[in-house]
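Recap quiz, item 2
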Amino acid sequence: MFESLKKKLASWLGKPEKKTKAKPKQKAKKEKKAGKKQKKPEKKVKTGKKAKPSVEEQKIILEETKESPEKLEIKEEIEIIEPEEEEVKEAEEEKPKKEGFFSKLFKKFSSAKISDKDFDEIFSELEIILLENNVALEVVEAIRDNLRSSLVGAEIKKENADKVITESLKKAILDVLIEPENLLEKIKSKKDLPFVILFFGINGSGKTTSIAKLAHKLKKSGISVIMAAADTFRAASIEQLKTHGSRLGIEVISKDYGADPAAVAFDAISYAKKNHTQVVLIDTAGRMYTKQNLMKEMEKIVRVSRPDLKIFVGESITGNDATEQAKTFNETAGIDGIILSKADVDEKAGTILSVSYVTKKPILFLGIGQNYEDLKEFKKSDVLAHLGLE
Amino acid sequence: MLEKLSSVLKKTTDKIANAIFLDKNMVDSIVKDLQRALIEADVNVSLVLELTKKIKQAALDERIKGIEKKEHIIKLLHDELIKILGKKKEIVLGKRNVFMMVGLYGSGKTTTISKLAAYYAKRGNKVCAIGLDVHRPAAPEQLKQLCDKIGIACFIDQNEKDPKKIWKKFEKDMKEYALVLVDTSGRDALEKDLIKEIKDLAKLANPTETLLVMPADIGQAARKQAEGFKSAVNITGVIVTRMDSTAKGGGALTACAEVQAPVIFIGTGEKPADMEPFNPESFLSRLLGMGDLQALMEKVHSVMSQEEIEKTQQKLREGKFTMYEFEQQIEAMGEMGSMDKILSMIPGLGKAKIPEGALESQQGKVKNWKAAIKSMTKEEKENPEVLEKQTSRIQRIAKGAGVTTTDIRTLIKQYRMIKEMIKSQSGLVEGKLDQKTMMKLARKFGKKMKL
C-alpha cells in the first residue's frame, strides 16, 4: 500500500529497499571508517580516484553487489571530499541513489551535535518526501518540530547515530498515530444494548459502503446488527442501504426522503431495544462541513441518538483539506474513531498521519476495495512496518 | 472557499509591489510563503518547486532593474499560475452529443450529470441521461430520482448487469436527444478490469466528450489518477466537484492541466444550479481578489431563461421595476445559490468581511420577503411607492405574511436600492458592464447593503 513513501524514506535514510533490517549495521560501520579516514591526506584519495576513473560505474556496482570492504572505503572517501561531484553523479545515474541521511550528517559535522541550521538543511529533503506523500503541511511541521526537539543539540555518538535518528523519526510518527481499541470487545462489554455507531463525513467519502462492510464484519463475528437509513437527503441513498441490507441479510430501518434524520435514528434505536439487537449503525447524509445548517443538523442527530461511537469517514486520497474536514467534524460532532476509505486507490499514507494528528483519535479501519471483506483493521505497527521503520 | 490561498497570493504581490529593494532575504521569504500556500492548496510538490525556482531566478536576475523588475515578477507569477491552471475549454455542441462521465468512487459523477442536464436543458437542448453504473447498489435509482426532479428523460435498467447491453437496449430511444449524458461506475484509474470495462464502453458509445470528474479535496494522488484516466480513455475535459469545501482544488486543477485535460466546469454545491464554467483567467482574478463578473453573469443565465431575461430587460428599459420584478430577482438569487457564493463573484465584495451567520440570516430574510410580496395587493405590487409611510398597509402585510413590520421595511429599502442601482446602470442585466464600473457600483452599494 505505502510503497512509494517507504521507498523514499528508505533512500532518505540511506538504506536500500527491502534490506532495511540488515543494512543499518553495515552502514554504521562505514560511517566509522569514514570518520577515521577523514584525517588522512587528500592525496591518497585523489590518486585513488585517478586510478579508477569510472567512479560512477563503480558506485553502481557497489550498490548492487555490496562486496569488497576495500571498495566501500574508497567510495566513502570520495563522498567526503568531493560533495559537488556527488550531485552530478546523482543526476547522471540511471537509478539515482540518493546520498543517505547519515553520510550527509557526518560529512558535515565532525562533532556529534546538530545545530538548528544543519537540521533545517537535512530535514528539507524529508519534508518534500512527506509532502509528496500527501501528508498535510501542518502535520509535516509537527513532525519536524518533534524531530528537531529530539535531535538538535543532542549528543549523538557516531556509532549509534543511525539508531538514534531512526528512533526519533519513529517516535515522531508514533506520536501522531493512536492505537485503536478492539471494537468487538468494546461492543460486547456494553451492558445496556444497543451499541450505537454513528457515521458521518463529506459527500462521497464512502459512508454507506463502509457501513455495509462493518455490518458484514459484525455479523460474521456473531453480533446482531441493524442499519438506519438516516440519509434522507441524497437521491436513492435509502435504496442503496436497503440493497446492501438484503445482500447481507441485515435489517434496514428507514423513513421517507426528507424525513428528519434524527427521527430515523431514534426509531432504529427503539427497534433495536425491543428486539435486543446489539448494534445500530446509523448512516447519515454526506455534508460539507462549511455549511452551518448541515452541521447543526449533525449536532441534533448526535443529541438524539447519543451514539457510543462516532465514526468519521474520510478518503485516504484527500490532501491538505483532510485536516480541515476532520477538525470541523471533530469540533461539531466529536469524532471517536476514523475510517479512511479508498486506501486501495492511493499508495500514499499521508492522510492517515494528517487525520490522526488533528483529531488525536484512532483510525479504526481502512477501506481497501469494493467487496464486503475489504475493511482492514488499522494497526499502528503496520504503518511503521510499511515505512521500513520497525 | 479560497480565502487563505487568495490572501497569501495577494500578500505576495503586495510585498513585491511595495518592496523598495528586492534583496535575497526578501525574495527567500516571499518564495517560502508562496511555496507554503501552494502546497497547502494541494498543488503537486514538484510543480511548486519548479514555479518558485523560476520566480526566484527572475527576482535575483541582475539584468532587470527597479520597477520593471517588480512588474516582471508579478507578471511572471500570474503567467505561471495561469500555466498550471491550464487552458480554457468550452464545449460546443454539435448535432449528436454524448458525454461520458468517468472518475473515482464518490467523486460526484451522478450529481454532476444532473447539473449538466439542468445546465444544457436551460439553454434549450433536448437532454437525456443513461445509467450504466451497474456496480454500486442503487446507482440507477439515484440517477432516476435526480432526473425526475429536474424533468429530464432517464434510461435505466436495474436488472441488467452488463452496461453494454443497457446501452444497446436504449440506443434507439436516445437517438432523438441532442445530448446524452452517460453515467458510469466509479473506478480507480489503475485497476485493470474496470478500465477495460470503460474502454469497451467508450468504443460502443463513442462519446463526443469524455469527462473526468474529480473532487477538489484530492491531494497528491490527483496526478496519477488524471494520468491513468487520460491514457485509458482519452479524457477530453474535467469537472472538479466539491469546490464549496475549504479545499483549494490545487491538486485536481493542476493535475488536469498537466495531462492536458482542460477543466470545463466546477461544482460548487448540492443544488442543480451549483455549477460554473471554469475559466482559468477569471478564476485567478477571483483568487487575487479581483472578482469574477463573467461567472456571475453565467450564473444569472443558468437560472433565468433567455426569454425571461429579455422580458425583464424590456420592462426595465421602460423604467418599470415593480415588486413583480423584484420577486423574480429574489427567486433567481435563491436559485443561484447561497449569498456568499454570489458575493465572492462581485468585485470588491469578495474581500468584505462579513460576520459569520450574517449571510444565513440574510437568506432567512429573503424567505420572509417572498411571503410578504405574496401578501401584497396588486396595486402595491405594481406601485410599491404607495407603501411608503403607510403604516396600516405595512402592518396588514406583516400580519398576512406572518413576518414583522421591520422585515417589510427592510424589504422596501432593498427594493428601492435595487431600483436605484438599475436606474443608474441599466447595463447590469445585459452583462455589458466593464470591471471598472462594476467596482464603483460594488463600493457604492456594498456600504448600503446591511447584512
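The domain at 97-288 of chain B is CATH 3.40.50.300 (Rossmann fold).
The first helix of chain B runs from residue 3 to 18.
End of item.
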